[in-house]
Write a structure and sequence with these properties.
It is built from 12 helices and 9 strands. The protein is α/β, with parallel strands linked by helices. The strands form 2 sheets. Strands 3-2-1-4-7-6-8 form a 7-stranded mixed β-sheet, sandwiched between helices. Strand 2 (about 175-180), helix 5 and strand 3 (about 205-210) form a beta-alpha-beta unit. The longest helix has about 110 residues, at about 5-115. It is elongated.
């Protein structure tokens, strides 16, 4: 082989190696570029796709949360509404149960009195029919065995008699009775005298479980309200003494203003001194309960005339066996309402003086409900003077029969 041939062969081989190297390097670079392009683009698309999916998921979760919040708010409102309705229903039911308990107690008291064998009054035979209607008020005139002249003076002045009294009940819804218990000797001469008087006038309410006595006025007051609420369904129950002048129409107009109020206690409110000295009038044996010497009583209505609503009369009837009795009946009544949600109404027209006081007020167009002398705790010598008081301070029959309650 010639030297030229070898040179040519050696040169071709050298060129082939260089091109091979360059070709390999190009292929490697092309492969790297292709690999990066293929790997980068899908990854970017994958990330974008993942980000979009996450955003959509978050949106759905957010919407779901908002929907749940709205639903929870709606449910919360519904719960509050139902809770309010339930509370109102419970309150109404509680009030209904309370009223039923009062009526049941009143009916039980009436039944027990009937089972004793003696009628409560001449109205007992009509008690059932009387309870079917609603009266405006029951006026109980507190009286004693020795007060026949006082009763006759009341009958001759402000208390209608016979058919007019029946008309007063039927047309005006006003019941008026003299209230008295029994003597210590049952069926004795005092009781027989009252029975004879009742046969003539028919205007007594006899308290079967009460024995008359000045120191027993608190007990008499309890039994009166319990008996009256058992016999008559009325808006108000009034207690008045038999030496007080009363204008019935003015009393009715006064009470009607408070008819829709619950638990009202109406009278001339006072707060007199607690008298600890023995032997004085209105002595308080339990003075120590009212604190130091010289203290005054709590606010209460003066005893000559006061009125209470039916729910308070029913309360007395239900709880009469546990209500404490103080020496003075007006103090006792006031004490029974302490701690209760009672509205005390102070109306000075229920405690006017006798002429000229009540006369001046009548002339000024402000007629009095009740008139008496403070110095006598009633009209002084009322059997003799009440006619004069009636003439000068009475409202007249037209006022009564023309009144609408």
């Amino acid at each position: 082989m010639s030297f030229k041939s070898k040179v040519d062969q050696s040169s071709g081989s050298s060129v082939s190696k260089k091109w091979s190297f360059l070709l390999c390097l190009g292929c490697f670079c092309a492969g790297m570029f292709f690999t990066n392009w293929v790997g980068t683009v899908p990854q970017s698309k994958g990330i974008m796709r993942a980000t979009a999916m996450e955003a959509e998921t978050l949106k759905l979760i957010s919407e779901s949360c908002n929907l749940k919040v709205k639903e929870e708010k709606h449910v919360s409102k519904d719960i509050m509404g139902e809770a309010f309705k339930t509370h109102h229903a419970i309150h109404t039911l509680d009030k209904t149960i309370s009223n039923l308990e009062m009526e049941l107690a009143a009916a039980r008291a009436a039944q027990e009195s009937l089972l004793d064998g003696s009628p409560l009054s001449t109205d007992t035979n009509r008690a059932e029919s009387s309870r079917k209607r609603r009266y405006l008020m029951v006026i109980g005139i507190n009286t004693a065995f020795s007060s026949r002249k006082r009763r006759d003076s009341v009958r001759a002045t402000w208390l209608p008699q016979d058919e007019k009294r029946k008309k007063l009940e039927d047309e005006k819804g006003i019941i008026v009775r003299f209230v008295i218990g029994h003597s210590a000797t049952t069926g004795g001469i005092l009781d027989r005298a009252i029975e004879a008087e009742n046969q003539k006038h028919g205007d007594f309410l006899r308290l079967q479980d009460h024995v008359e006595g000045y120191l027993e006025l608190s007990a008499k007051t309890k039994i009166y309200f319990a008996t009256a609420v058992a016999l008559w369904d009325a808006d108000f129950y009034v207690k008045v003494d038999d030496d007080v002048h009363v204008n019935i129409a003015t009393l009715g107009e006064t009470l009607v203003r408070h008819r829709k109020k619950p638990r009202v206690y109406i009278g001339c409110m006072k707060s007199g001194p607690v008298l600890s000295q023995k032997g004085v009038r209105y002595h308080e044996p339990e003075h120590w309960k009212f604190g130091e010497a010289g203290n005054k009583y709590f606010r209460h209505a003066t005893g000559q005339l006061y009125a209470i609503s039916k729910d308070l009369a029913s309360y007395i009837s239900i709880n009469q066996h546990v209500l404490h009795k103080y020496a003075n009946e007006d103090v006792s009544l006031g004490s029974w309402f302490i701690g209760l949600d009672v509205e005390h109404i102070d109306d000075r027209r229920l405690c006017c003086g006798t002429p000229p006081d009540c006369e001046w007020k009548a002339q000024a167009g402000n007629a009095c409900v009740a008139s008496f002398d403070w110095s006598c705790s009633g009209i002084c010598k009322s059997a003799d003077r009440i006619k004069e008081v009636h003439r000068r301070c009475g409202e007249g029959e037209n006022a009564l029969w023309g009144a609408t309650f």
